[in-house]
Design a protein that fits this description.
mainly alpha; 269 residues; globular
Length: 269
Amino acid sequence: RMGGGGGAPRKAARRGPPILGKRAWQVGLSGVVCATVLSYLRRSAAPRLFALHVAAMAPMLPLATASVSTVRQRLTRPPAGLPAAARRRRNEWYVIRHFVASAAAFYLAIAGLVGIVCQKEALGRPHLRTLHAWCGAAAWVLWGAAYLAAQPQVWRDQWRQRRFSLLSNKRWLWSDSTHRRLGVLAFGASLTAYASGLLGWRALPPLVARCCAGLVALIGASTLGGHGARVRDDPRSPEMARDGPRLGAARARVRPRDTMTRDDPRLGT
């Protein structure tokens, strides 16, 4: 019985993820905006192709927000006493969440783009004549670029080992500044396109459109605020883990008085 009890925690750790933090409040708020858009779409008499565009783009807000906020949650402090293997597994689950949410948002964007392009072609209207159209096109290109930039990192080990699998042997813990910057730009362009689309959609009452656009701005500002600094400075980030020894050696060569800042405990603050 003692032996069986000792194996249970290891089996449970393999079966499911470790303790993960609560989802960010921005994800819930973006879900409210998405539900509002879909409710007005259901009551409107929108053409089928335009309805496809709205229905595909509306869930992009909660999915994209979940994608970005999940990466930030990976930098939060894990529960005290969590073993190293469990901490690694916890970080992997956060990245898997990010991967699934961002991929779903990108594929939905493709469906929404096809819908609006076909709608304009059917009506004989020109493309890329509004701020919403330009921001939407930029968001789609940036989102696709960020998605493609991640693929060599995720599949690197399988490529080297010549063992390919969709369900296993993926490399989840990595860091790439190009992917991160493209993702931030894509998220910002997506929110701008989303808000401008809300303000220009006649099916939404003006007050509802302005309130939803304001919530989108709040979601974007609170989600992206300080993102880059937290990623670079957090000691648990992959960048710090990779560059830590080199940075430590460089700091050791600096004179002690040059390393003192207003946050230094020796200054009494």
